[in-house]
Structure formats: C-alpha cells, structure tokens
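User: Show me a protein chain along with its predicted structure.
Assistant: Here is one chain, sequence first, then structure tokens.
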Amino acid sequence: MRCPFCGNDDTQVKDSRPTEDNSAIRRRRSCNGCGARFTTFERVQLRELTVLKKTGKKVPFVRDKLEASVKLALRKRPIEENRIDLLINGIVRQLESLGEAEVKTEQIGKLIMEGLENMDSVAYVRYASVYKDFREAKDFEKFVEQIIDPVE
C-alpha cells in the first residue's frame, strides 16, 4: 500500500480488525519512509459493476459516490454513523446481488430512496428533490402530500 503522504511503497500493517458490521477489515498502517500513520479499509467485492446512466453512457460503479450522495441527504440529521454505513453496505450488497454487471442509475436511486424513507423523512425528501428533479416548490408540495397521505 502506498503512503498517501509521501508516496512510499514500503508501508506496514500495525493493526487489523473488522468493522462493527463485519463488512470490512480496518487496517492501521505506518509508513516506513516518513513515519506517518493512516487507515485503510478492505471490503469484499462480489463483482465489478458498471452504471448505465440516463444518457446511455456507461461508467464504473464508485461506492464513494453512493456514500457521498447518502451522506449529503443525511447531513445535519440525527442519524448515527454506523446506521448510515449499514444502509450504504446494504445498498451495495443488493446491487451486487442483482446478478447483472450493469445497473441503471434508476435502480440505484430507487434503493437509496427506499433506505432513506425508512431512516429519515427529511433526508428522504432531500434526496427525492434531486432524484426526481424537482423544479418548483409545487413539486415538493405534491411529493410531501404523497408521503403524508399516500391514498391519493
């Protein structure tokens, strides 16, 4: 593993332990060149996923983008970090379990929406505003009405 501080390839693992949800291994490392310490995470990846965008463009799936999107929706919400990690890990596992190498952005968005709906209603509306491309306040109003009174 290359040191993120000096670029030296000679680093040493000082400590390894599983994360709380056992979905990854957390490794504390030390650089033999500059002495800096840093942490890496090792996760199981069932398959390489490709995201099929609405434009037809295909790009590699990047877990960090999914994580950033979810964390942005949950910003300043009273949700514990481990619950957020469980949600993200669950979404990634579901995508990998689909049996398809290509996933549409709509599938990813739908899984995120389902997870946020069960976790935090404010984050759910925040994410929906981007995912469903709200253009006006009326779009928010209609969406929130559907949440409050889903019978209509």
